[in-house]
Amino acid sequence: MGNGGSMVDDVAWSPPRRRNGIWWIVASGLLLPAGWVAWLLVALAGYNGAGMSTHSLAGQTIGSAVVTVVCVGVPLAGMVLLLVQRRRDRAVTLVGPVGCAVFVVLAAVSLGYPTVRVAQAWAEEEEQRAQPPTALETSRTEAQAEQDLADVGQRAVTALGAELGSGEVGRYTRACSLSNLAQGTRYTWEWSASSVPEGEPRSDAERAADELPAAELEQRIAPVREVFRDAGLRDADPLGWNVRGYGDGWLHEAFAGVTKVSGDVSLETTCLAGGPGDGVDEDE
Whole-prediction pTM value? Predict the structure, then answer.
């Protein structure tokens, strides 16, 4: 009888099996680096090369938020579940809840903070898109921009001492972003003349011989500088061998150069509202 009672007492006093929620910790530990990779993939989604990007801050914000919620939610659910189990069963240790809490903090800091910054950038972008174009961006229609460019260009060619018909005129348009991120158009007007047949190879010595003497060059390009200044441009390189000007008005940039055998003039507007975007229209 005594021996039998002793065996029962031994079983009764066996230490309880401890449960520490190790699988929740392992799952959270594996999920966090996977979340980092997923967050980066979401951030890079849509970048297909220059001019081919379909990336949007809206898509990045939503995707980043989903990744963050998952990476924070799994260890948070494990922590809450293990704490509830511990209230009912003291065999559940605090190892699991503490480990899950660590991963909650790590995920919230490493994923939550950058996600909030992306959301802020998205909100700022939407506010920017809601703004109307500026007065400068709507100061000229497509026809007015092309006509004004042609007028300044013709005056520059004449100031260069050349005839407009002695060269080729090219008109180009290029898509651009307005201040409110809507698509606008940059207009370019170019004139180029050369007595050297196109495609004929030229040595460095021949190109050097084509350069005008400094005094004659300055005499040829000084009137062009005045044309650009009258158009609202400021000299970018007043002592250079070419004329280059930049402006803050409708005319954004201009260039002119001349040698013994060639002459070039190029004008470009700022980004203006409307217009065709990308396009080419060459006149002989």
Answer: 0.69
